[in-house]
Amino acid sequence: SQRPTLLCTPAVGDGAQHARASTVDAAKDIMRPGVVLDATASLTAVEHLLKDTHQPQALVVDQASRVVGVLNASDLETLRATGELPDGERVRDVDTTVTAQDLTRPLLVWVTPKTPVRHISLIMAQTQQHRVAVIGPHGEVGVVTRDDVERWMSRLSTASTLDLDATSQAG
Fold first, then answer.
1. C-alpha atoms less than 13 angstroms from C-alpha of 76 in its C-beta half-sphere
2. Nearest to 73 by CA among 41, 108, 92, 48
3. Sign of dihedral through CA atoms 148, 26, 38, 5?
4. Which residues contact 105 (CB under 8 A, 6 or more apart)?
5. Each residue of 66-116: pLDDT tens digit?
6. What is the value of pTM for the model shown?
7. Phi/psi at 105 (nearest 5 deg)?
8. What whole-number distance in Å separates Cα of residue 96 and Cα of residue 11?
9. How far is CA 47 from the centre of its chain?
């Protein structure tokens, strides 16, 4: 049975006050390209892609390029060590029978490109996630990491300090 997907949408309201302090205010402004795998990719292809991109996970898409879930490198390592899929099913011939789809977990938390960065920060804190997928209405995908959010917060803090300095020099 598949668990429901939790969609975190942008809230309406106080984003405008933060836009003044920083031009970077939404996921689309700080996201990095997402690593994407076709659901039918072989285990070898999955391993090569994760190794080549140095990413701990990839978004998995179906034939229509819709995101169907996320594949974690740790599940791949467990499969190699134990022959067990994330759902507990044991597999005999891992290299010839397992595809990306078999290792895919439901994507429980994701945001849109317009989600304010401060809301992404709250989502990460509440769900204890270090990265959040960004999925746009036209199939565009990306990832926002905790480091991306921290850089944004640092820029926001710097912009606020500069505003205070300019105000105190003018007065």
1. 22
2. 48
3. positive
4. 69, 70, 71, 72, 75, 86
5. 888 899 899 899 998 998 888 888 988 888 889 999 999 888 889 999 999
6. 0.69
7. -105, 150
8. 45
9. 19
